[in-house]
Amino acid sequence: MSEILKVQDGQVVLMEYTLRVDGEILDSSSGHEPLEFLQGAGNIIPGLEDELYGMAVGESKLVIVQPEDGYGVIDAEAFVEVPREQFPSNIPMEEGIEIQVTDENGTPMNARIDSVSDDSVTLDFNHPLAGKELHFDAKIVGLRDATDEENEHGHVHGAHSH
């Protein structure tokens, strides 16, 4: 009898999942390939990875991830006020609109419009899921030992990866 594989570092995990935030489904592998990742390599958020240890194929678990183990807590310094005239007129000035801006080095960054006043716009550079409790329904659907190369590179080399 080969021993039953359980999730541990150095294993490639295939996981089906559904992510709910505030009761709404935000992401799910349903209808797609399962998520494939190398356990222990930080390929997925730490709060989820930590809870998968010891699970076997076919097992499901509801994992609740607190913000600090997920996408971080809300950073007050990630709110930036910008003069309204700096915005191109084609951007709708509405709360919740996602825009991409570039920083001084030309690196693209995603932001959301947090609030709008007559002469300025406050942008929120926090991750959209910062400060949120993440509810993952996770099911392990496949496990295999990672290859030496995968362990060395810290991620999966599958038919789907580049």
Q: Supply Rg.
A: 20 Å
How is the biggest beta sheet arranged?
5 strands, antiparallel
Average pLDDT reading: 92
The domain tally reads 2
Q: In the CATH hierarchy, what is the class of the largest domain?
A: Alpha Beta
Helix content: under 10%
Please indicate the percent range of residues in DSSP E strands (runs of 2 or more): 35-45%
Structural class: mainly beta
Plain-language structure description:
By secondary structure, this protein is mainly beta. It folds into 2 domains: 11-71 and 131-153, Chitinase A, domain 3 (Roll); 76-124, Thrombin, subunit H. Helix content is 8%, strand content 38%. The chain contains 2 helices and 9 strands. It has helices at residues 46-52, 148-153, and strands spanning 11-21, 24-28, 35-38, 60-65, 79-83, 98-102, 108-116, 120-124, 134-145. The strands form 2 sheets. Strands 1, 2, 3, 4 and 9 form a 5-stranded antiparallel sheet that branches. The longest helix is centred in the first third of the chain and has 7 residues, at 46-52. It is elongated.
Question: What is the element layout, followed by pairings?
Answer:
Elements: E1 11-21, E2 24-28, E3 35-38, H1 46-52, E4 60-65, E5 79-83, E6 98-102, E7 108-116, E8 120-124, E9 134-145, H2 148-153
Antiparallel strand pairs: 1-2, 1-3, 1-9, 4-9, 5-8, 6-7, 7-8
